Amino acid sequence: MAPADNKGNTQDEDVSRRRFFTLMSLGVGWGGLLTALGGVGVGAARYMLPSVLYEPPTIFKIGTPEEYGIGVDTKLKKERQIWVVRNERGLYVMIAICRHLGCTPNFFQDQSLFRCPCHGSIYDTRGNVVGGPAPRTLWRAAVSLDPVDGQIVVSFNTRQDPDPVGTPEGLMVEELGREIEPYFLKI
Amino acid sequence: MSEKVSDSAQVTTKSSRLSAMIKKTAAGKVAPENTVLVWPNLVYLELICMMVAVSVILFLSLVAPAPLEELASADTTPNPTKAPWYFLGLQELLVYFDPWLAGMVLPTLMLVGLILIPYLDPNPRGKGYYTFSERKFSMLVFSFGLGLWYALIFVGVFFRGLDWSWYWPWDDWHVHQPAGAAKLIDLEIILQSSLGLSESPLITLGRYAVTTANLLTWVILGAFYGIGFTVPFLFFRDFYRKLGFVRYNLVMFFFISMMGVPMKIFVRLLADVKYVLVTPWFKI
Amino acid sequence: MLSLLQKIREAVNKTQVFKSIFRHGYPDTDGNRALVMFSNIILHLHPVRVRRGALKIKFTWCLGGLTFLFFILLAITGVILMFYYVPDTRRAYNDIRDLETVIYFGSLFRAVHRWSAHAMVFSVWMHMTRVFMTGSYKPPREFNWVVGVILLVTTLVLSWTGYLLPWDQLALWAVTVGSKMAEATPFIGAAGPFGPELGFGPENDMAFALLGGTIVGQSALLRFYVLHCLALPLITALFIAVHFWRIRKDGFSGPL
Hints:
The complex is a heterotrimer of chains A (187), B (284) and C (256).
Chain A: H1 2-47, E1 59-61, E2 71-73, H2 77-80, E3 82-86, E4 90-95, E5 106-108, E6 113-115, E7 122-124, E8 129-131, E9 140-145, E10 152-160, E11 165-167, E12 170-172, H3 175-178, E13 185-186
Antiparallel strand pairs in A: 1-10, 2-3, 3-4, 4-9, 4-13, 5-6, 6-7, 7-8, 9-10, 11-12
Chain B: H1 2-23, E1 35-37, H2 38-63, H3 85-96, H4 99-120, H5 136-158, H6 187-195, E2 203-205, E3 208-210, H7 212-235, H8 237-243, H9 245-271
Antiparallel strand pairs in B: 2-3
Helix pairs in contact in B: 3-4, 3-5, 4-9, 6-7, 7-9, 8-9
Chain C: H1 2-14, H2 16-21, H3 30-39, E1 49-51, H4 57-60, H5 63-82, H6 92-101, H7 106-133, H8 142-164, H9 169-183, H10 206-211, H11 218-250
Helix pairs in contact in C: 5-7, 6-7, 7-8, 8-9, 8-11
């Protein structure tokens, strides 16, 4: 009985060892294949994100503050996609891109409103959403004065985008809290 | 000689296979006398169909050539900007929901819902013929979704004008609608002012200040789904039993979400509600 | 006259050239009519025999076949249009203008391409509605319905990518709106819920990968061109092949 038992044990060991090696090689094989495929996937995804961009400059000069009077100035909308707005305290630059889906709103002088032709978003001259589907207020670009020639330098890379508060008038941001550096030029 | 024999043997097997093929029918069970040969019956029908379709396309192309607008320029958006008709349902949806919802989540749900249809419909009847009485529920749900989609496209094509405002056919389509008509308000503000709830937050989670009114909107949305899930479960036991647990929950999720879309649209059109639920990260 | 034609036909049928192309006689016998069906690569999509009801046009309305026809028309006219089109933002618009104004039949090919695209979207949608109404998605055809939904998606994406190529106002704004939607994708879009929290900004999110930049510009035009003319048609053709193959394997549901 005893030798037979021993024999049985060695057989069991053999089987389990073979099983172990089979499982291990299967694991290494399939694991390796999946890792390689995953690597290719990650590589392909990264490949689709370009490292060099050939796009219009995002930092540019727009002349001196004296060139802009009180109110909304739309003369740079075509060239730079911005509106320059001046009030009693100073000057800020809004980016002419609707926060809903990126169309270019039009300024209506008589209503003092920006209205987007794509889905009907409406903004006031401070960029607050007073109607339509836009979920956030218009961006304000960072502005600074060039110490050499005194021109306003606008940067699209830094944009003011505070969380608006829902009110009966629309999505609002408290104005004085927004008029801070670098998004506002005190004049 | 031997070559010839094997050749003719091949021919016989081939021809016997062929005659079997001629007698065999597509459905297998159908008697051969109820079937016809595809050549020439079906093939010629298809050829005629094809010729008619190509003539229609050619005729349309000659009558109405493809349009070409002005050169693309990022500074001016044409007013109004309308997508091609098959995307106008989506564009119209974007008026009522935020882009993440209308542009991404809802289309994904629609497509996943479509893909799941065969797996969610356990009814074995109505296979291969038009019938309404044998599969009322699936027909009604599908037709409702389809009708909703067509209605949105219809609105986009015929009722949207300058600034994407609503224009009736008898309005002057060259005059901008007053902006006041587009004023919108969040549900939680309506609740706050009508129920006289306090504006101070109960708890603040980072950027998220949860007020009583905000909590109430969560309850309303939860109740919408909760009631939708439990009512059929309690009162239409047969419906539940036929579907089983997993199918039932999937069907109800898609069904309730689909019903939510026109409800939000009506709440927007009738009560000017912008969002029913507001968080700093997403709004519904 | 007729007998003369018949004689010519019989003579042609006997030539080595004819026999090398068509491995059967003229299809006026049941045997040859069956051989036609499975010795021709295009015709062998069909079975040899169908039920009588298959000839009833009110069951299928030919919609699946029409969709395939429009796809073929689009492929042919698309290749023709490619001969004169350069996907460069400085040239694209003028190339389309040339096609419309100075190139013989350019306007016609472009119009056929456009109408076929509209027709394909329409017929694919109608086909889907028909398949639902006749319950033809029910077992064992569930998977072919899934393939059909995938084909609906590729059809719509093909239309959308094609919209950018003329580089006119409609092109720019349709794609601007579409890419902003991609930007609003939850979790992987810069403007989507939890996107910024997970570290996605305008220079690494979903829309950036789609456009190859932060604006709809040259790289976006090139990407959409490659997708529209190469990648998506190949994917669509592949799924069409699977779709047809499954129709034959699963059998027809109705009187077909």
